[in-house]
Amino acid sequence: MAVRELRRLPRPHRFDVYIAVGGLLGGLLLVAVGLNTRPAKDPITLFEGPWPMLVPLVVMSGCELLRRTAPRTALLTGTVAVSADALTQGSLATLLMFTDVMYAAVLYGPLASARRIQWITGLLTVAGTLVPFAVWRTPEVLLIGVVVGVGAYGPAATGWLVRNHRDVAEAARLRAEQTALLAEMDRAQAVTSERARMARELHDMVANHLSAIAIHSTAALSIDDPATSQQALKTIRENSVEGLAEMRRLIGILRDGGGDKEPAATPTLDGLAALVEGSRANGLDVGLDDGLDDGLDKGLDDGLDKGLDDGLDKGRGGDRGPVPTPVELAAYRIVQESLTNALKHACPGRVTVRLARRDGMLDVRVSSPYGHRDGPRAPGSGAGLVGMRERTALLGGTFAAGPEGEWWTVRAVLPLTEAVPAPAPVSEES
After folding, report:
1. How many alpha carbons lie under 13 Å from residue 161 in its C-beta half-sphere?
2. Domain of 106?
3. Fewer C-beta neighbours within 10 Å, C or N terminus of the chain?
4. d(CA 166, CA 276)
5. Rounded distance, CA 358 to CA 400, Å?
């Protein structure tokens, strides 16, 4: 392990260089003034004089250079140096630098090594306390365990505590960064969701009027008939006024900071009669089959608002409970966009709108003649189908749109109870 550390050894940290130079100069100063840890006549002193103390001192100073970049190598080399220093008169600077190397080995070394150092120094402290006392039976020998504990276990325990605090601080920093990242992701998702919602509302409120304007203006330009042109211009003006009113209402909501609310006068199923009548005024043959009940069918087929209101009241309320407001809005917008698409793309023929309530679901189905169209056609962007699919997915329902024989059918099944939203499937071109 120590060899692998030396192979990838980077440059010493600047602070470690300061410690090494300071420890070396301090040790040389202590040797110069003759301040040693043991007297020359001590029984364990094998090498007397100042010069033998310089070798462990210089080696330990070199270990300080490796305290951060190669902590295990520094500790192993430092242990040899401090053992050699024990055979001399002893330098206090060497002992102090060894405690720092022990501390750095636990703080900067691998986690497994730090744990092993804790156990080893703890066992040495206990052995240094009990074994000498068991052999000599004198209280003074207990100081050996104290010296071992202060010089080895104390720095190791301090390094372990500092390492734990550092890891806790790093974990807190990472959690803070993750929290900030999640908050930013939530903000971006909220912005994207709001933009998509406003795009759906803008498209659904204005596209129907603009499509009618495009078709009738094309007819007015292509047919040389004053009466036809007059009727087309009248229809164009009506749709322009209504579209402008819708735009102003939406812009007012945005300027007033009401982005978290639905547009004013949120449409419901009560407005289907006016919606169908508007489509008929634009030249679309619209009828309704198998509605919520007979009252709803009669109301739409006869064009009577009272019949529609009675039918909706029975279909939405009564014993079966009301239709939730989000479901009403989605159903209205889906019918509105389907009629707009039929006005732009459908062949001549009758367009049928069907609303049925069964098994806790509201089934919305709009069918229009499918095939080649000879008359004026307004361009499509595919945004309408995307919006209908998104509205259905947000309520946890299912959506499908496509040709069925000679008919183009749009069908949405919306749950009347709270459901988990499903991912929106891939959109189709309108």
Report:
1. 6
2. 2-180
3. N
4. 69
5. 18
